[in-house]
Specification:
This protein has about 170 residues and is α+β, with helices and mostly antiparallel strands. The chain contains four helices and nine strands, in the order E-H-H-H-H-E-E-E-E-E-E-E-E. The strands form two sheets. Strands 1, 4, 5, 6, 7, 8 and 9 form a seven-stranded antiparallel beta sheet that branches. A hairpin with a 6-residue loop joins strand 2 and strand 3. The two termini are about 10 Å apart. The model has no long low-confidence stretch (mean pLDDT about 95).
């Protein structure tokens, strides 16, 4: 029996100081996409250089999160549903994800070094069995009753339970 159905979320922040090659490609391509897309929301009479200024001026600019996220889609698909930076306690299994969301933290059309984005990866529904010694004990199988194959992921910064559904315990 397990305690709840959960989804885990893991967020990475990518900026000019990111060292992973994958991050650098995503960072560069999302900045290029931002440069193209921001034009449809920026005013010719009163142009804004930063994303935060643009949001203040034009509330429709919130669409830029999604539009810029399209530039990262091909890179996310390369991961094939497993985020390799988060491994189980044995180092064998990667955190599975079923979707992701990109958000622009801030950017400046005049300065590439100020471009900063976040990507949150969301796991499929997992069975939370327990939290043992600072590790989430989970199973990918939410239907098993008599036994389950399990994984343990360390509780760590930027990893969070983002969905929780308590299970009904039969009497």
């Amino acid at each position: 029996m397990y305690k709840a159905k959960i989804r885990l979320a893991y967020r990475i922040v990518i900026d000019s100081t990111s060292t992973f090659l994958w991050d650098k490609y995503v960072w560069e391509d999302t900045f290029k996409e931002y440069l193209m897309q921001h034009q449809q929301f920026n005013s010719k009479e009163n142009p804004k250089n930063t994303f935060r200024e643009l949001l203040t001026e034009n509330e429709k600019a919130v669409q830029l999160h999604y539009l810029v996220g399209i530039a990262a889609h091909g890179y996310v698909e390369q991961l094939k549903g497993n985020f390799h930076r988060i491994t189980d306690v044995l180092g064998n299994n990667y955190l599975p994800f079923s979707n992701y969301q990109l958000d622009i933290i801030n950017t400046d059309i005049t300065d590439l070094s100020k471009h900063k984005i976040g990507i949150t990866f969301y796991s499929p529904v997992l069975a939370l069995i327990d939290i043992i010694e600072g590790n989430y004990l989970v199973s990918k199988n939410c239907e098993a009753v008599d036994g389950m194959e399990t994984l343990m992921y360390p509780v760590q910064p930027h990893l969070s339970i983002c969905y929780y559904q308590k299970t009904k315990i039969p009497r």
